[in-house]
Amino acid sequence: MREVAIIGVGMTKFGELWDTPLRDLFATAAAECLEDAGVEREKVQSAYIGCMSGGLFVGQEHLASMLTDYAGLKGISATRVESACASGGAAFRAAWMEVASGMSDFVLAGGVEKMNDGADATYCLATAADQEYEVYNGVTFPGLYAMIANAHMEKYGTTPQMLAQVAVKNHANGALNPKAQFQMKITQDTVLGAVRVAEPLGLFDCSPVTDGAACVLLAPVEVAKKLGKPIVKVIGAGHATDTIALHDREDLAAIPAVGEAARRAYEMAGVGPDDIDVAEVHDCFTIAEIVCSEELGFFERGKAGQAALDGVTALDGAKPINTSGGLKSKGHPVGASGIAQICELTLQLTGRAGERQLKKKPRIALAQNMGGSGGSCTVHILEVEQ
Amino acid sequence: MITPRYHREIPQRYRLEGGKCTQCGEVHFPPRAVCRKCGGREMETVDLPRRGKVLTHTTIWIPPAQFESQKPYVVAVVELENGVRLTCMVADAPPDEVKIGTEVEIIFRKLQSDPRWEVLQYGYKAKVVG
Amino acid sequence: MIGIVGYGSYVPRYRIKADDIANQWGADAESFKKGLLLEEKTVPGPDEDTITISVAAGRDALKRAGIDPKEIGSCYIGSESHPYAVKPSGTIVIEALGIGPEVHVADFEFACKAGTEAMYVAYSHVKSGEMKYALGIGADTSQGAPGDALEYTASAGGSAFIMGKEKVAAEILHTYSYTSDTPDFWRREGEFYPRHAGRFTGEPAYFEHVLSSARGILELSGLKPEDFRFAVFHMPNGKFPLRAGKALGFKKEQLEQGWVVNLMGNTYSGSSPTGLASCLDVAKPGDLMLITSFGSGAGSDSFILRATDRLPEIQGLAPKVRDQLADRRIHLDYGKYVAYRGKIRMNEI
After folding, report:
1. Is there a contact between B122 and C84 if contact means CB atoms under 8 Å apart?
2. Does residue B89 lie within any of the structural domains?
3. What is the CATH number for C286?
4. How far is CA A34 from the centre of its chain?
5. Do B41 and B85 reside in the same domain of the chain?
6. pLDDT value at residue B1
7. Nearest chain C CA: its distance from B3 CA (Å)
8. In the annotation, is C279 catalytic?
């Protein structure tokens, strides 16, 4: 296998982009990515594009052809990848494998979702759960995570305040990210007093409904070196799946696919949780960041909530998580989120993260992207060559 | 039109029928073509017990459109007496009546009735055992 | 011996008080409560209808009968609120109860009499020897127009009875029916709420049929009111059944146990059957019971039953009617009530 580097990143503004259609979201992110890489579009051989549900959100399938055409990449090998909210991470993995295998030198990994186009987002997102045995019975996506939260609270004593602190922290980070959907700080009171969605989760415990796209360009390290780019290497890649239905998992206060994907990524990278300087963790709901941080080994089980309260995961903390603002504040265009995480970490590793740049420049970063209530998960570990 | 799928799932939705692997005895709900434990492919129909307890729960305040008329409502993961688990609403339950460990019984209710021109969709819910 | 092998009733958990309906429409609550002899009525949840009520009652009837559902040869559901305009309720009920597919199924409608109709036909099948067991159910989620006197009474609930020749818990000794074309209450196709002919629903309709039917079966049987432990008459309100009972010579003690209307309202097809179930809950072997239904349009069915030694054995196998009436009630305000009953015009999905 060849070593693979990320040589360019691009991302649209995230938010309610009423005037921008799906195709232009992707085209804009791809163009920005190629510009950042300094690679002409004729060089791109292949693309993998994560998108959870073009069919439901905008009534459009057969996306790979349309999106690459509108990005000026007509004719290349292109595949749309779907793994619910982990579609971006899964697209990244496929692109990484194509470069690592030696098949192609320049492969685009992208993700896009156009969620504000008139569809019932609650309904569309719920298709990532078991339609016949969860959704039919009235459960929603926030509802599934709310049930994980209640199980976690019962088992470990996690509190609503701990959940709220995750949102407060991620909004503080997002306020420094010009591409974030919400660039505003909030307080614990905002979160705890918000409209209830699914007990114990309120509106500010939930990531928003977002339009957006993100792309990264991958190339072999030796090719990247010739281009004179800073080398951000993919040193670990882990992917795991689990039952689609939450009720079929033994421990409802855990998300085992995350732990398993992390184990595989750590093993490939030859690093452990303590080596990670910065992480983007799939905080689709505040409880998700807490449980995933535990699964990733950053904290003991039941301790991630307290760590958030103690500021450990803040921008100036010992283990900064979601410097971008996370899904919570940056926004969560589901198919794009996994790629946007890689964009953020690449910026942090190369010292280009602007106002939210970590004081101590990180060397090793981890991106964790999850589908459904934890039915799929990808973990990627990146390292910048100093 | 949801009719073919609805009809196919009547044994599970109406009667809580599971599938038991004739090779290793693993009970699945819903029934599976291939046993998750041993890979066996021969299943026999079994009626699941109707009593169980709540493993975790939530109160849904913002539901999809087809459940709008029932909000707020409680949803729970229920473990039946034989260990089989399922997700269902808890009928007629004020939110504070349902806790982790609450004993429930599976009952038959109308789950969805919108849109108006579709068939009515019935199935199982839980009821707190008083 | 032919009779009831198992029975079950279902009472929804939700209620609305007569006071709240009266307050909503600027009516004098006390005079309505006094006139109707009714405190509150049951309200079906948004996820309940004639089918779910029938399944709940049917399941308890099966528990008490202790028989294999596959042995049931017919299933009849009497209701004036079948959820579908076209498509049977009974097919859903048999699938949920594990009955059939070798079974004869039909939905009946005869205003408030459809429940005893279902019982009557089920009983006749067993009597003729056509089948071993037969199931008859009366259930309703009845509607009354907002502000109409009917709104104080129209409620939800139902009862199910399995008829058979073996394992009989209450023998059916006699049946009798009395029917004429008397248009006191109706609902035309496409109309949402029923209409009624005011005081014409009383003497020419209810009392003419109930009293004639009860007198007919008493004469047929040679029994007198004092021979009975319990008597049940259809309960469109609290007053009518008590007046009918008194006119026939029954005493208050004979009427009270089956008189569930003050706490339950008029469950239409489920009304007198649920009154009977309440009597079966406490009857002792040898006790005689009379039940007379009434359906607008109009007609009455009467049954005379005698409890057997098996009845006490099955009474405790499922929840009793009066326990359900008392158990964990949730009172709705008028706004919530009309929302649950689908009386608010909503945008369609």
Report:
1. no
2. yes
3. 3.40.47.10
4. 21
5. no
6. 64
7. 13
8. no
Cβ B80 vs Cβ B28: under 8 Å: no
pLDDT of residue C342: 87
List all residues 6 or more positions away from C333 whose beta carbon is below 8 Å from its beta carbon: C16, C20
Name the neighbours of A, counting chains with at least 3 Cβ pairs within 8 A.
Answer: B
> How far does chain B reach from its first CA to its final CA, in angstroms?
38
Amino acid at C198: G
State both tokens at A180.
């974030």
Tokens of C273: 């059957």
What confidence tens digit (pLDDT) does each residue in C146-162 have? 999 999 999 999 999 99
Q: Same structural domain for residues B35 and B89? A: no
Nearest to B93 by CA among B81, B84, B103: B103
Give the C-alpha separation, C21 to A350, whole Å.
70
- Cβ distance B59 to A136 less than 8 Å, yes or no, reads no
Residue A28's pLDDT band (cuts 50, 70, 90): very high
CA distance B17 to C57: 20
Told to judge if A343 belongs to the known catalytic residues of this protein, a careful annotator would answer no
- The token duo for C237 is 């309100």
Domain extent at residue B118 = 49-130
- Is the pLDDT confidence value at B114 over 80? no
Phi-psi region of C36 (alpha: psi -120 to 50; beta: other; left: phi over 0): alpha
Same domain for C63 and C175? no
Q: Which residues of B fall within a CB distance of 8 Å from A150? A: 56-58, 100
Domain boundary among B47, B68, B88: B47
Q: Exposed/middle/buried for C187, CB within 10 Å: 0-12, 13-18, 19+? A: middle
Using a 10 angstrom Cβ sphere, with 0-12 exposed, 13-18 middle and 19 or more buried, the burial of residue A294 is buried
What was the pLDDT predicted at C349? 65
- Chain C touched by B108 (CB under 8 Å): yes
Averaged pLDDT score across all residues of chain B: 95
- Termini Cα distance of chain A: 22
Distance CA A321, CA A317 (A): 9
- Examine residue C79 and state whether it is found in any structural domain, yes or no: yes
Helix or strand (DSSP H, E) at A94: helix A87-100
The average confidence (pLDDT) of chain C is 96
State the pLDDT at residue B65.
Answer: 85
Nearest to A282 by CA among A268, A273, A295: A295
Distance from CA of B5 to the nearest CA of C (A): 16
Q: Check whether residue C39 and residue C148 sit in a common domain.
A: yes
Query: B41 and B100 share a domain?
Result: no
Q: Whole domain around residue C205: which residue ranges?
A: 170-311
- Written as one string, the DSSP assignment of A166-229 is HHHHHHHHHTT-TT-S------HHHHHTSPEEETTEEGGGB----EEEEEEEEEEHHHHHHHT-
Q: Whose CA is closest to A384, among A265, A180, A234?
A: A234
DSSP string covering B11-48? HHHHH-EEEEETTT--EESS--SS-TTT----EEEEEP
Interface test with B, best of A136, A141, A250 (most B CBs within 10 A): A136
Higher pLDDT, C198 or A163: A163
pLDDT at A23 over 70: yes
Q: How far apart are CA C271 and CA C154, in angstroms?
A: 10
Average pLDDT over residues A134-151: 96
How far apart are the C-alpha atoms of A11 and A13, rounded to whole Å? 7
Give the pLDDT score at A122: 86
| Average pLDDT of chain A, as a whole number | 97
